[in-house]
Amino acid sequence: MITMWKLEAYTGGSWSMARAALIGTALGAGLFVSLSAARAQTITVWSGYPEMAPFYEHVADGLKASHPDLHVKVEAIDLREHEKRIALALTSDQAGATIIELSGSTAHRYLENDLLPAAPNDVSTFVNDPKNFDAFFANDASKDKIVYAVPLFRGQGSLYYNTEMFAKAGLTGPPKTMEEYNDYAKKLTQRDASGKPTVSGWSMRLSGGGQGIAEKFWTILFQYGGSVLEPAANGKWKANFANEAGRKTLKQYLDNVYISKNVTVDMPADAEAFERGQTAMFMRESWVIGDIASKAPTLKYATAPLPIGSIALPTNLYVKGNGKDAKAAWDFAMATNSPENLVWLLDKVGWLPNRSGVDYSAVTKGQPAFAAFVDYPKGYKFFTLPSIGPIDEVLTRLAAQLTAAYGNPAIAGNDAAIDAVLKTAADETNNILRRESLLAE
Amino acid sequence: MLQRKRWIFAMIAILPTLVIFACVRLYPIADTLRLSLHKWDILSKKKPFIGLANFSELLGDHLFQDALINTTIIAFGVLIITIPTALVVAALIFHRTRSRFASFYETSIFIPYVVSLVPAAMAWKWIFDARLGPLNFLLSNLGIAPQSWLFDPVLSVICVIILCSWQALGYAVLIYLVGFKSLPVSLFEAIKLDGASGPQSFWYLSIPMLKPITLYVSVVTLVSGFNVYAQAFVLASDSQGAPGRLVRVLVLDMLENSFRNYRVGYAASEAVVLLVIVLILTLIQFSLLREKGRP
Fold first, then answer.
1. Are the Cβ atoms of A113 and B248 closer than 8 angstroms?
2. HEC sequence for chain B
3. Do residue A272 and residue B242 have CB atoms under 8 angstroms apart?
4. Domain B54-293, second-level architecture
5. Option in A91, A209, A267 nearest B42 (CB)
6. How is domain A40-152+315-367 classified at the architecture level of CATH?
7. Does the ipTM exceed 0.95?
8. pTM confidence score
9. Chains A, B: CB contacts under 8 A, how many?
10. Which stretches in chain A have pLDDT values below 70?
11. Which end of chain A is more exposed for a tag (fewer CB within 10 A), N or C?
């Protein structure tokens, strides 16, 4: 083995020069890297919707001209895991600036505890301008009239239906009342020789984790004039589903599962089932349009508004950070709301942008399925989740009660049993509100 | 004097380990005990002392009761399946030690223990799928009606037990194999001379002599059974496209209370209950097996 000193002996002074050159190069490279690192600025985007990652990357690409040294790291994960990391991260200090995608109702707790800073003046002016945002969205991004976030998109439900299956069943248009939903589901269900459904007439959200089950229940409840929570005076709330509207809603679920047998608990469900032709209709947000375009582009389908109205769940961008990093993060949040980026969001991802005064017609004309989300009938109503601390607990616990009810054939067709289930669930909701001093007695 | 120096040396040598153990094990346990007596929403700086209110609320919480019952059934189900199966499998592999396939048998059994949990659970999810799964296909061919494995309240718990047992088996077999290899050969030769058959020597010699191993394996299996979470989560939750009933287990309930419901004090009280249960069961196992188990 030739050691270094031996090599030097063989090559004489030229080795010393080579060594000096090597060290110099290494130091130079190190210095270059350090300077680059010092100049480069990194901000992180936390999203709870993996399909949003390409949008944020698109926005980052567009920012390169004005922010050449800005590096945007996009971390988009499942919503429930996203909520957990926010709960853990916001209570501890972290380096750099993070743009956090969060619904207004969930952000409320963090704002109450001063864990998210107010938006700078220019952002606040932009959000409060009625030309940019309806008061509904501006209020959702604010607390006590102070703006904390930039509104971005909303979850809004509509009916998706398979037009080929409708035509085959002799149905020319979507159902317009909740009673029609039952009739349509019966006609649309495809069965095998034994009568067992092979394609569900109406895919209802019957299982799975999280509060989505309760949100879907609330959407149907809303069509009957009910709501999971009803506001009262002084910011108090109470359960509003142990009543006729609640009975009609739960009865509709149970009738479809156990009496008409238009759907079963073990059938494929939701967007995946719709895209595979395993269900004829279901209710979902606008992101499904983008999902269908990428996964089932040949699917023949249409959308329709719900009979009375829909959930509108706004999602906003909050910023956690200080100094120059925070400034860059707010610049990024504002850039998401540029007309070009919002049209891209609607076209490529499918979530509905909240900003008004932007011409989305290029997308909505090209994709008629968006019509149900933007051209809804006059008097169409919307509801959103209340911005109260225990809202997630209320919905998660209600979801657990509903899942058990959906799996219980004994209560199908039995109004008294349905009322008992609803009363138990409503009592639990009211107990949570009472514990948090939010119950309207 | 020499003894004192040795003692000091021993203490200094063990001190770093003790410090690390105290930081990563004892402190979190002590803090969990403290938190269980407070109301804390993870975000607020205020943590008011509320005594045993969290524990009294647990008594009437149907989700906690469901989680406790499910977790207990799963933990004991895994124990009941894993220990006898592992003992028999280890005996069979040990009996075939000289076979050229011996290492293949060991590896085949051990692989589920080291394989990543999520893809494994996804594969099991497909097996249990009511419409497309091979399990229902097999049952249909045998004339048995297909079952809603992942939605039925009872079957979904059984699915979690099967998945956990499949995973735990490899480790238990490996430990039992070590135990078999350490048993004195002379005793087996003696019992063979006395005319005992293979099954008899297994029943009357191997099993009693392996009691310390059984104690260790059963404690580890039971404790990990009570900590079940990811299996239940992957099999059923977040499955909007594929129906699945979320089997509520204690760790899942704690996570939900901590990070969705923002009730860390309440979740800590659940953790204390879990700690007490595991401690009591471990003590019972020790008392049942330890004294009699000494060879």
1. no
2. CHHHHHHHHHHHHHHHHHHHHHHHHHHHHHHHHHHCCECCCCCCCCCCECCCHHHHHHHCCHHHHHHHHHHHHHHHHHHHHHHHHHHHHHHHHHHCCCCCCHHHHHHHHHHHHHCCHHHHHHHHHHHHCCCCCHHHHHHHHCCCCCCCCCCCHHHHHHHHHHHHHHHHHHHHHHHHHHHHHHCCHHHHHHHHHCCCCHHHHHHHHHHHHCHHHHHHHHHHHHHHHHCCCHHHHHHHCCCCCCCCCCCCCHHHHHHHHHHHCCCHHHHHHHHHHHHHHHHHHHHHHHHHHHHHHCC
3. yes
4. Orthogonal Bundle (1.10)
5. A91
6. 3-Layer(aba) Sandwich (3.40)
7. no
8. 0.80
9. 103
10. 1-39, 93-95, 209-210
11. N
